[in-house]
Design goal:
The complex is a heterodimer of chains A (352) and B (337). Chain A is globular, with a radius of gyration of 22 Å. In chain A, helix 4 packs across helix 5, helix 4 packs parallel to helix 7 and helix 5 crosses helix 7. Among the domains of chain A are: 74 residues, no CATH class; 80 residues, no CATH class. Chain A has an 8-stranded mixed sheet with strand order 6-7-8-3-9-10-12-11, sandwiched between helices. Helix content of chain A is 32%, strand content 22%. Chain A is α/β, with parallel strands linked by helices. Chain B has 11 helices and 12 strands. Classes of the chains: A alpha/beta (352), B alpha/beta (337). At the A-B interface, helix 7, helix 8, helix 9, helix 10 and helix 11 of A face helix 7, helix 8, helix 10 and helix 11 of B.
């Protein structure tokens, strides 16, 4: 295996609020290899976006990265000075956001904003920059790029704005592109076009992609590896086929079963996950998923599980794992998936 | 063309069920200055029978939310007729219309914006009862507690405020409010789109349970085609203010008769890497044209992969007609889809 291009080690990001300390990211570690495309999935509040923002030190106040390392080419991004990290942002590691409307400056022409990405890093003079901007817009399939460069953001549609953002992200040919829910605000048809575009870039230019999303379908199409986050922690990670076909963490398993599929053959009742995501001010003791987990055992209430290998390349943080839940608790035939339903451990049941 | 559609036998509906909503050639244009108008809904006819769930899908700007507001008469129609229970609601004004509203309620997309932050949950749910003078005092508060229980919340939450609840719980409060007056028709306008995946499943299951228990009829609007397929008996697809296809859920999804429906379906990412990787996208070039000045002929011809140009697709508007029993589509070449 080649050496990772980015290594995140034991990252902790906290928000100091009136109610206390919220551990939004609590000990996240992962490696990203050159040219790879990984997905970070989770629901709102799981810490997936804050993980991405922490990498580039963009965590908004009152949040701060309290410990850990983010190694990029052997330098720890968390230790760099303001000027040094600015050099990296947009040049080596670029980021695109969910809402292209608010990420573009409404009073500057779109083309100028893309030129700026290159000028800021002294990569080109104005003329070269403009040439490349037109090329980039063509590359992201904006029709008539020569005239579109002069448009203001409001003159572009939502899909085109997101393409312009991607063009800006690619301006300096970064080795890593972090995409934070880049298609969530878009229609499915436009989403499909953007995803195809990202897949092409990944393949043709070898740009490594970190895709942050709540949409399992998006991950299935684009990524080769996936990290599943819950309540600030990675609960499972591994190759995408492996995770989708043999999830070992009950959260991943439940999540995959709770999504209606457009290719479903018959109408089945959705298996919802009972309860709510935990309040991170007061995270549950033991495993953070235990208040909602159908397969929890005694140990889950008190001891926090660590990520460990459950199959080649696949890690899960669970005392039980789905393999045992299947064998001993009849997970596949379980219709009632209330907390503790599989293990019979109903005590301390969630009361809303 | 709408007349043509009306003469057709309606799509298969629950046998013997009675028509609850009948929409006839409804048009809604919004003035946009300079003598132009946004043709948000442009000649739409369909029916919803009692107890069914009719799904409505389409891209943003296709007119689906406008249509929802027309059906519930939150917006007046430009032309056309809407009947609810054989009463022509588009003709009603004032108090008579207000009384009709008891039968039709709406659940909105944003559970944060659709609940008044300064009202208690109990007051929010009781408001429809107060408005229509239904029940008083103890009886009313009992009803509120009953409704909270029905939607799976603790009945003692009635003194709390919306900010104390999560998105999914707030959506339950919105559902309780919609049910307060025992409506016949509930219009869900992107009612689950703002929720997390695991919570979406809870709300979809709740909506299904409530439908069974209270014999509700749903018009379920969403851009998430997977959820629509799951919950709907029939699905209607809109494009630029027109209905392009209506069929039962299985028909629409397994053998679409309109190229737009096919393209929409192919664009949905399936949470299965083996399928998703090998899938070929029906490349839908471009984006939805402006409803200020919709394309001539078939409105989809500018993006259609099978259009015969210029004629007939750019010249003749295809009528919404039955292609297979109970399966309506508006396409000149539906056999090629």
């Amino acid at each position: 295996m080649p050496t990772p291009i980015l290594q995140v080690k034991d990252l902790h990001t906290e928000f100091l609020t009136d109610g206390g300390v919220v551990k939004a990211v609590d000990g996240v570690s992962f490696d990203l290899y050159p040219g790879e495309s990984i997905g970070i999935v989770g629901e709102s509040g799981s810490g997936k976006s804050i993980t991405a923002l922490s990498i580039l030190r963009l965590v908004p106040d009152p949040g701060r990265v309290v410990s850990g390392q983010v190694l990029f080419h052997d330098q720890d991004l968390l230790q760099l000075g303001g000027e040094e990290i600015r050099e990296i942002r947009g040049r080596d590691i670029a980021m695109i956001f969910q809402d292209p409307q608010s990420s573009l400056n409404p009073v500057l022409r779109t083309g100028f904003q893309i030129d700026e990405a290159m000028l800021a890093h002294n990569k080109a003079n104005r003329k070269q920059a403009r040439q490349r901007t037109v090329e980039l817009l063509r590359r992201v399939r904006i029709p008539a790029p020569e005239t579109r460069v002069k448009d203001f953001p409001h003159q572009l549609s939502g899909g085109m704005r997101q393409r312009a953002m991607i063009a800006m992200g690619l301006a300096n040919a970064p080795s890593i592109l972090i995409a934070d829910e880049p298609t969530t605000a878009l229609d499915v048809t436009v989403q499909a076009q953007i995803l195809e575009l990202l897949a092409d870039l990944n393949r043709d230019l070898g740009t490594a992609i970190v895709m942050i999303t709540h949409n399992m379908g998006v991950v299935a199409g684009l990524c080769s590896r996936v990290l599943v986050m819950y309540a600030g922690e990675i609960v499972e990670q591994g190759p995408v086929e492996q995770i989708f076909e043999h999830p070992q963490h009950p959260y991943t398993w439940s999540l995959l079963r709770s999504i209606p599929r457009v290719d479903a053959l018959r109408h089945e009742r959705l298996r919802s996950i009972e309860g709510l995501a935990p309040d991170l001010l007061h995270p549950p003791a033991g495993c953070r998923f235990h208040p909602r987990c159908p397969f929890r055992v005694e140990k889950c209430f008190t001891d926090e599980p660590r990520l460990q290998e459950v199959a080649p390349d696949q890690l899960a943080a669970c005392w039980v794992t789905m393999e045992r839940a299947r064998k001993e608790m009849g997970a596949d035939d379980l219709i009632d998936i209330r907390p503790g339903a599989g293990s019979g451990l109903r005590k301390g049941e969630l009361t809303e | 063309m709408a007349e043509a559609a009306l003469q057709q036998e309606p799509a298969p509906m629950k046998a013997g069920a009675k028509t609850l909503v009948r929409v006839e050639n409804v048009v809604k244009h919004f003035p946009a200055g300079l003598g132009q108008s946004v043709k948000a809904v442009d000649g739409v006819s369909f029916e919803i029978v009692e107890g069914e769930t009719l799904g409505l899908v389409g891209e943003s700007g296709c007119g689906k939310s406008t249509l929802a507001r027309l059906v519930t008469q939150l917006l007046p129609v430009t032309s056309g007729k809407i009947f609810i229970n054989d009463v022509e609601v588009t003709k009603l004004r004032g108090e008579k219309l207000r009384q009709q509203r008891r039968q039709m309620q709406m659940i909105f997309q944003d559970p944060f914006a659709s609940l008044d932050p300064r009202m208690t949950v109990g007051d929010i749910i009781a408001e429809p009862l107060v408005n229509f003078g239904v029940m008083r005092g103890r009886k009313r508060s009992d009803r509120v507690q009953e409704l909270l229980k029905i939607v799976g919340l603790n009945p003692n939450f009635n003194n709390r405020y919306p900010h104390e609840f999560s998105g999914g719980q707030r959506q339950r409060i919105g559902i309780a409010r919609a049910l307060a007056l025992n409506p016949k028709l509930v219009v869900c306008d992107e009612a689950i789109s703002a929720l997390d995946v695991s919570i979406q499943a809870q709300i979809v299951n709740l909506l299904e349970d409530l439908q069974r228990e209270f014999k509700l009829t749903y018009l379920f609007i969403a851009h998430d085609l997977s959820v629509v397929r799951h919950i709907s008996d029939r699905v209607m697809v809109m494009y630029l203010g027109k209905i392009v296809e209506v069929a039962d859920s299985a028909g629409t999804y397994t053998s679409p008769k309109h190229p737009y429906t096919k393209a929409l379906l192919s664009a949905i990412p399936v949470p299965d890497p083996r399928i998703q990787r090998g899938k070929r996208l029906v490349e839908l070039s471009g984006e939805i044209p402006s409803p200020l000045n919709p394309p001539s002929g078939c409105r989809f011809h500018t993006r259609c992969p099978i259009a015969h140009l210029p004629t007939p697709c750019a010249e003749v508007e295809p009528p919404l007609e039955e292609k297979v029993r109970g399966h309506l589509a508006a396409c000149h070449f539906s056999q090629d889809v």
